[in-house]
Amino acid sequence: MPLGHISLPTTPSTYKPMRDFYLATLTPLGYTVYEEQEGVFFGLQSNHNPDFWLHCAPPGSAELPLVDRSLTAEENRKILGGRTHLAFTVGGKKAVEAWFRNAVKAGGIPNGEPGERPEYVKGYYAAFVLDPLGNNVEVVHFNPCWLQVMKMVPGIAIAVFGAVAGHFALGYAKAAGWV
């Protein structure tokens, strides 16, 4: 079954930076605000499906520290530890590149420039940033070679069928004395 939704935790002091970051980085991917109760929860939807949420811990809960913008992603990960990894799928390499530029502009810390990831699998093109709380956010365009071949199959099948049908039609026309 596909994932229904995900909700990331925030705290009263981190709610606004997280909200602003995700609003800025997911709106270009087609997300719109589904519902918000300021400082409590924030939901975004894609294709009329509210699948991305932020939820705020009650006042008095332990605070979650924000990333230190003066440090690299690796340095922040050492301080903050492992956080959540999210990946959003887009339709092409240019969309990955545009998202990355936008995410860095919105305050994300670069954690992997746009590019092929052959160590994952051929055809995996992705970029990564850390959000304000250090979650690793990825945008990926996955177009493996087997999928590229599958996309060509209908055209190849039509060409082969046309060639075979033409061969038989020409043979029939010769046998009938038409050619």
TrEMBL record:
Keyword field contains Transmembrane: yes
Residue ranges of domain VOC in the record: 2-142
Signal peptide per UniProt: none
Keyword annotations of the record: Membrane, Transmembrane, Transmembrane helix
Chain segments annotated as transmembrane: 152-173
PANTHER family linked: GLYOXALASE FAMILY PROTEIN (AFU_ORTHOLOGUE AFUA_5G14830)
Protein name: VOC domain-containing protein
Provenance organism: Staphylotrichum longicolle
